[in-house]
Queue: 2 jobs
Job 1
Amino acid sequence: MPHRTYLTTPIYYASGAPHIGHAYTTILADALARFARQSGDDVLFLTGTDEHGPKIEEEAARRGVEPIELCDEMAARFRSAWERLDIGFDRFIRTTEDEHKAVVRAFVQRLHDRGHLYAGSYEGWYCVHEERYWTEKDLGPDNTCPDCGRPVRRIEEENWFFRMSTFQDALVAHIRDHPDWIVPEVRRNEVLGFLEKPLGDLSISRPRSRVQWGIPLPFDDDHVIYVWVDALVNYLTASGAVDPSLGPEAPGFEDPTGSWWPADLHIMGKDILTTHAVYWPTLLMGAGVPLPRHLLAHGWWVVGETKMSKSLGNVIDPLQLQEQYGTDAVRWYLLREMPTGSDASYTPERFLVRYEELANVLGNLAQRALSMIVRYRDGVVPEGDAGGLDDAVSTTLDAVAAALGDYRLHAALAAAMDLAREANGYVEAREPWAQAKDPARAGDLDDTLATLARVLGVLAALFHPVCPERSAELARRLGLSGVQTLQEARTDAPGGRTVERGDPLFPRVDV
Ligand code: ME8
């Protein structure tokens, strides 16, 4: 049986357009999904849009459209952006889907039936942009949100609450017992630090008098479900564990056997780690549902030194970059530039540095090797010893596997690029142009060219998850019927294949 991997991105608010922050998370998930498929796993890769709550309701009102019209438009926009960036998601969920609404209602009913909900009153502050409550002492100057700086609203109303506090000890124990449950470690320590203070209960409903655009509570029609509870349950809906027609007693809640649940990896930005590492697992514990296996919280993209924001007008559009440099270049830049877990700064200069790495190291190696096979051997890879770089390949594959093991994708990609650098060094050291001049060294030249053909096949496989389009083109030029698996590539016998030189894989760009 192949191993199964279920990985998720956050579902993005259907109120704003995708920018490089959203693109980063989704490309990161896509690359991890492709690495998993490459090693033979069955994969479910989920993304989608978060479509309920006051944020959407107010944005729709501002535009003078119905909330669902806004959601339809934005969901289509996210989908098409992801398609243009070669993101091969398996499922795109929308929280306005009937199936999801039914699972959310069954989930909340289940919490109620198990005695974890109570009615109470809430008095405090709310930020619509972040869709979260704040206490007085958290607020910034002039009653602003400490996260986004926007004005918060005073709220006094009846809400249903989830007894989150009763699960605090169990959650702390789970995090301590599973050191790699939250990755990277700095984020794990942040969550543990947060959990040193007593955990409050969680308001999980909004009176319909204030918020209409949401899923009604199954046991109190005057309330809709808090958008974060609605949103988090998407991961369970898409897993197929729960048949919502069976209601809160659906067996899949407790025993998801045969479905994709539990998720192997939830990927998100550090901004929403608390909801994923505190609200979500405690809600699952309340419902008696197994917890996801890992959470990966990545860092934050800023532009130059500044936060990216619509009001500052500095939002970087991944599709504009894609148009200018191609899909693979955008994917490479984002994944190679940001150390998973740390913050990174977008600048056009850094983008070019990363682009030139593709062009001058990988692209140049391919161009040289293929040209020489064409020039010296009429375009047919000779039957030489292809193992001249086997040690370097082994070291690289070990480094890549180790880096992927703890989701350090940037390090895996750095190792892949180093192999291309090493292969360029091999060309310099072997001097095939000198070997070609000396008939006595024809066998050496065969070995050089066969080695380069094999290493290019390995590089096509290694770069495929991040640069799917150009890697497939490289494989085609190598005379392969498709990109090989890493196992096939490392022991490949390229002799006899007809190659094609082609234009540079990554053309020179005018700045
Ligand atoms: O929070 N740098 O949706 P959202 C890096 N709907 N990543 C960034 C980023 C940046 N500057 N900006 C956004 C929500 N992201 C909820 C999620 S999930 C059950 C509900 C990415 O549209 C990053 O992954 O505000 C962040 O966590 C996510 O977009 C927030 O997207």
Job 2
Amino acid sequence: MEILILNGPNLNLLGTRETDIYGSGTLESLKQDLRRSYPGFAFRFAQSNLEGELVNHLHDAATDALDGVVFNPAGFSHTSVALRDAVAAIDLPVIEVHISNIYAREEFRHASLTGGAAIGVISGLGFEGYSLAVRYLIDSART
Ligand code: CA2
């Protein structure tokens, strides 16, 4: 099995600012946490600040027949029809993750266009959300 962990715009800044909202972990520490939690498991990690590059990462995951995607589209969650279409177009299970609880924040964050095309959404559990999403994808592939 191989799972794509895909992070959207500004998440490259994790751990450097807004730590009150997103915690002190960095993208690198997220990678290490997942590798430690799922030893020997194959992950593909990608982050982009560009909408089209995120679309391409989703297409590539499908072309390469990966087994699922854990996707934090960040700000694009609330705006991007193109990313929603890409999530819907690929024949892979996609779980959307948000580090913060989008429903406890400003109203414009309450709706996720991309989340409507994912099989599920985890929001507000910090980095643990990524790990739970991976666990779900592994368990559902086995059954
Ligand atoms: O809670 C999440 O994971 C979000 O997807 C994060 C997005 C936000 O637009 C969504 O509403 C919820 C923002 C990512 C910005 O990341 C930063 C990280 C560190 C410092 C500044 C921004």
